[in-house]
């Protein structure tokens, strides 16, 4: 759940971008956003992303046994991290996300959000 939604209860396009980022993380990692580890302690996917001892590639589902396109995995994981930024203003626009996913733009070509992008 996007932090601003949890606090204010208002749905915006940036909340949906956050949720999309969580779904991308779940798909690539093969894990649910919230779960429990073997010690029955809560474990959150977004916490794993922020651990400094991990790289993005550490998040890729181990069940894939290395059979995946690493460049695509990095692209999706990078987008997911951008989408789940705690600050809504720093999350990309959906149009930019799609442009990167279909190969029309690179990360360097995404313009920072402008005032018009905010609800």
TrEMBL record:
- Annotated ranges, domain Serine-threonine/tyrosine-protein kinase catalytic: 1-101
Q: Does the keyword Nucleotide-binding apply?
A: yes
GO function terms (MF aspect): ATP binding; protein kinase activity
Keywords from the UniProt entry: ATP-binding, Kinase, Nucleotide-binding, Transferase
**Tree of life domain:** Eukaryota
**Name the UniProt record assigns to this protein:** Cold-responsive protein kinase 1-like
Source taxonomy? Eukaryota, Viridiplantae, Streptophyta, Embryophyta, Tracheophyta
């Amino acid at each position: 759940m996007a932090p601003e939604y949890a606090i204010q209860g208002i749905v915006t396009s940036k909340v949906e971008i956050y949720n999309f980022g969580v779904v991308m993380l779940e798909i690539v990692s093969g894990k649910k956003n919230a779960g429990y580890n073997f010690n029955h302690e809560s474990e959150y996917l977004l916490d794993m992303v922020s651990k400094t001892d991990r790289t993005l590639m550490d998040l890729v589902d181990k069940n894939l046994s290395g059979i995946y396109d690493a460049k695509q995995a990095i692209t999706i994981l990078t987008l997911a991290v951008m989408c789940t930024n705690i600050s809504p203003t720093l999350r990309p626009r959906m149009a930019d996300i799609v442009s990167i996913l279909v190969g029309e733009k690179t990360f360097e070509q995404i313009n920072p959000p402008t005032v018009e992008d905010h609800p």
